[in-house]
Amino acid sequence: MEPRFNLFANEIGAKIGKRIANVSMVIEQSPLSKAVQELVNLRVSQINGCGFCVDYHTKEAAAAGETAVRLHLVAAWRESTVFTDAERAALALAEEGTRLADAHHGVSDETWAQVRKHYDDDQTAALVSGVAMINAANRLGVILRNPGGSYEPGMFSGMTS
Predict the structure, then answer these.
(1) Structural contact between residues 40 and 127, judged by C-beta atoms closer than 8 angstroms
(2) Using CA atoms, how far apart are residues 65 and 72, in angstroms rounded to an integer?
(3) Could you tell me the domains of the chain?
(4) Whole-angstrom Cα distance, residue 16 to residue 131?
(5) DSSP element (H, E) containing 111
(6) C-beta separation of 20 from 133 below 8 A
(7) Which of 50, 77, 86, 116 sits between 20 and 30 A of 71, alpha carbons compared?
């Protein structure tokens, strides 16, 4: 599978990519744990079918110390015992926030209550923004047909400015 278009080889695309990277850097540097960030990014990417982003976030999570068992079970987190209540709240928000068109009311009050029970304001801001940003990145990846398999952890370090 070949990508349709190299967004970063285009002047406008490169500017957009840097802005997305800058927003992502703010989220990465937030008090929301790296584990939750990567689990959420992985789950949203699975739902959206973005091979590049699944590859990226699986490898980044593993490089940050995430276990293979948890990475393999993230797609079936509701039927798994390896996630904390806080992680389950974040994964529920990620799914409901990704499947907006499939849900009558978007994110449920029950899910929102669980998120607020486990995350402070700064973590909630990072979590909600993270769900939005990974959905945007997934759309770029799927539209452009960026394939998974070639990502190396840290390969986009230093992309912001």
Answers:
(1) yes
(2) 14
(3) 32-144 (1.20.1290.10)
(4) 18
(5) helix 109-118
(6) yes
(7) 116
| Cβ-contact 21, 133 below 8 angstroms | no
Backbone angles phi, psi at 151, to 5 degrees: -70, 140
* Backbone torsions φ then ψ of 38, nearest 5 degrees: -70, -35
Q: Is the backbone of residue 35 left (phi > 0), alpha (psi -120 to 50) or beta?
A: alpha
User: With contact defined as beta carbons under 8 Å apart, do 83 and 114 qualify?
Assistant: no
Q: Which two tokens stand for residue 60?
A: 């980044």
Which two three-digit tokens encode residue 27? 């989220």
Residues 22-78: tens digit of each pLDDT: 999 999 999 999 999 999 999 999 999 999 999 999 999 999 999 999 999 999 999
Q: Please give the distance of CA 117 from its chain centroid, rounded to a whole number.
A: 21
In residues, how long is the chain? 161
pTM of the entire predicted model:
0.93
Query: In terms of C-beta density within 10 A (0-12 exposed, 13-18 middle, 19 or more buried), how is residue 51 classed?
Result: middle
Rounded distance between C-alpha atoms, residue 15 and residue 13, angstroms? 5
- Write down the residue that tokens 């390969």 correspond to: 155
141, 59, 134, 41: CA torsion to nearest 10: 140
The separation between CA 3 and the C-alpha centre of its own chain, rounded to angstroms, equals 21
